[in-house]
Amino acid sequence: MSSIRRLVLHGASWARRGQRPFRLTAALFTLTAASAWAQPSTETWCDFGRAGPASTLPTPVALSAAHAQARFFGTGPGTTAADLVLASALEGRSVDWDVATRHYADTLDGVCALDVSPQELRAARVLTVGGIAFIRPGTGALQLPGHVRAAVIDLRELPEAPGLEEALARAIGAVSNAPITRLSERVRHHTGLTDETAPIDEYSNYINFVDLRAREPLVATGQAELPVALLTGPRLAPAAARFAVDLRMARRAWLVGASVHAEVAESRWMPVKSKGVLVRTSRLEDAWGAVPDVIPADLPLTHFGPVAGHSEAIPSARALQSVAGLGMPAPVDRTAPVVRNAPLTRNPLEVMPPSEASSGIARAGLVIVHGATRLFFPYFATVGDGIDGRLLETLASVDAVPVTEREQTLRLLLRFTEVLHDGHGFAFAPGTPPPAGYFAALLEEVAEEPVIRRSAMAEVHPGDTVTSVDGWPMSEWLAREKALSSAATPGFKYDVAIRRLLRMNGPTTFGLRDVEGVTRFVQVQPQPQMLLGPPSLRGAGSLEDLGAPELHFINLSSYLLKTPAAFRAALTAAQGARGLVVDVRAGPGINTYEVAMRLIQESFSAPLFRFPVWRGADERGVHEEEFPLDPLSGPSYAGPIVLLVSPRSVSSAENLSMMLTGTRRVTVVGRRSAGTNGSVTKMLLPGSMNVWFTGMEVLYPDRTRFHGVGIVPDIEVSPTASDLATGRDPELLRAIEFLRTGQ
C-alpha cells in the first residue's frame, strides 16, 4: 500500500471513530509533498547520514579504528579486499589523510565519507504549547509539565555526538509508562581473533560467526503513555536514525518529515581528520526478519514558523496540537524485498593478497595490526599501552624511506610488534627466497653475550663468544635487533634477537673470543642447514653416568621425545627412582596435560584462559575457560621432581610448568622462562605478510599474573662459556645435587 493511500485510510478511520482527523491541507501536512517522496532517486544511503564531531585521536590512529570497524564488524567485503582498499588509499610518498579517507570510503562497500561536524550536543530543551511538549533531546534531565497530552521529539540536525543515545532514551522515557522494545541486531561475533592463515577447524580457539544480538528495551520513566511524533530531516545521525526505526517498528511513534534509511541506522560514526566515515556494522531485525531498507515517513512536514521566544524553526502551535489525536500508527509495510545484506562470517584464506611491496602496503599493514591489537590483544593492562606512539613512529619511517622491498615491510611490522612485549609477537614474509645459508650453531646467552653451545662448523667452537659481525660490534648489532624483537622477558628477547644471526646472505666475518680470552676473526661460509635441537641432547634414562643411578631424567623436547607412548615408556622406566628431573628448556612435542596428569598426584586445574569477546562493534566481554583435571596412573610418578627451565621455555612448556608449579609439585632449577602462554592468533596482511600475537590472557587458577613473569626458578643456575666449551650441564648437575641433598 502506498504511503498516500495509508494516510487517507487512516484519516477516514479516525473520522469513523469520532476522532478529529488531520486536516491534510493544514499547516503541518500536504499530500503533494507526500507524493514527491515516491519519485525515483539516484541517492545512496550515504546521502542520508549525519556526521559527528572530530576525533581527538592522532589521525592514523583514528583511521585504524575506522578500518577495524569495517574489517572486523562491517557488512562489506572480506578482510583481504578491505585491506587492499586501505593499501590503495595509503599509497604515495606521503599521505593526505582526508584524501585517503575519501578514497577509502568511495571504494569500499558499506562505508561512507562525511565532513566532520563542529556541532555539539546541546542541553535538552522542552517547549510546551497547549499541552503538547516539543522536545529537543540533549544533555541533562528533562522536566515535563504534568498537563502534557502528547509529545513531538525533534531528531533533525542532532549531531552524532557522545551522549546522543542516552539523550534520546531520556526523551522517549519521559513520555512513556511502559518499556519500549527495540529491534535486534544481526552482528558479527568474535571470540578472539580468528586465525587468518589457516582454515577454521574444530580445534580452533578463536572463531567468528554471525549472531542476532538482542538490545535492551528503552526504559520508561513517565506517568502516561503519550502519543509521540518524531520529526525527521533528510539527514539523520545514526543514533537518531536507529531511535526512529526502533520506535516506528514498535508502533510507538509516528515519523513526520523525511523517510529513514535503515543503513544509516545500522552504521557507526568514525571520525578521522576533517573527514570521517560511517561504517555499517549490523542489520536491524525483528521476529519477522530484516526491517525494510527504507522506513517511509507517515506524514510530511511543512509550514514551519518560529514560536515566541525561540529562534529555531519548529511546527506551529496548531500543528503541534494536532499530534494529540494521532493514536497508534499502522504496521510498517514490509512487502518490498530487503536488498541490504547482513554481516557475514569472516573465513580465513578467502583471497590471498599478492606478495608485493610498496609504501601503501606497508602503511596499511601497520594500521591494520594496530587496529587488530587494539581490539584483541589482552595484555595492555599488564605490559602498558604504547601502540599509538609506535604506529606514528613506524608510519614516519615509511614517509622517510619509501618501501620497495618486502624485507622493509617485515622489519616495520617487527618494530610494531616489539611494543606488545609479547613472546608470540612475530612477523613473517612467506614466499620470500630463502637465505644463502645459515650460521650452523646453537647460541646461548652468557653474561649478555652470545656464546656457541654447539657448532656444525669446524672453525667455530663451543664456548666461543661472538663479538662482532662483519666488523659491527655485537652489542650494537644486538641493540638494533632487540628493537625489532617482541618478548615478555629479557632472556627471551635476547633469544628472539639472536636468531636473526643464523640467517646468512653470503660469507660473513665473525669475531670470536675463546674461553682463554683470545679473539680471532673467521670468515664463515653459509651452511645448507640450520643446527637444530634443545640445549641438552640427553635422552630419557638413568643418571648413572653422572654418579646418580638412583635418579632418572626425561627430556620433553619435541626434538627427542615425539609421542605420548614414548613419554609413557620413559615414565615407566623411572618407576622406583628416588627422584626425577624433567627438562622443559625447549618446547615439548606431546600433550602437556597428559604429562601433568601423570606427574601430579591430586586433582588440579589447568591455567585460566580468558578470551576477548566482541558481540558486534559495541559489546565487549571476556569468555573464561577453566579445566579441572584428575591424575592418571599406569604409569605415573609420585616421587620428588626437579623441573629445568630456561628463557627458551615458552608457551606449551610454560603451560606445563604453570600446572606443576601451581600445585607445588616441583622444584624449579635454571633461568626464568619466556613469560608467554596462550594460543597464538595469526593475521594475513597486504603484501601477503603475516603477523602473530597472543590472543588470550592466561592466569594461574588463583588469577595471579603469569605474562611477563614466567616461571621463576627456585634455584637459579646459568651456564658459563667454559661449561659450554666442555659440554658440562650446570642446571642438570644442580638438579642432581638438590634431589640428593634437599638443598
TrEMBL record:
Signal peptide (UniProt feature, chain positions): 1-38
Residue ranges of every copy of the Tail specific protease domain listed in the record: 517-718
SMART domains according to UniProt: TSPc
Protein name in the entry: Peptidase, S41 family protein
GO MF, one example: serine-type peptidase activity
CC per GO annotation: outer membrane-bounded periplasmic space
Biological process, per Gene Ontology: proteolysis; signal transduction
Residue ranges of coiled coil: none
Cross-referenced Gene3D superfamilies: 2-enoyl-CoA Hydratase, Chain A, domain 1
InterPro entries: ClpP/crotonase-like_dom_sf (IPR029045), Tail-specific_protease (IPR005151)
Keyword Amino-acid biosynthesis: no
Keywords in alphabetical order: Signal
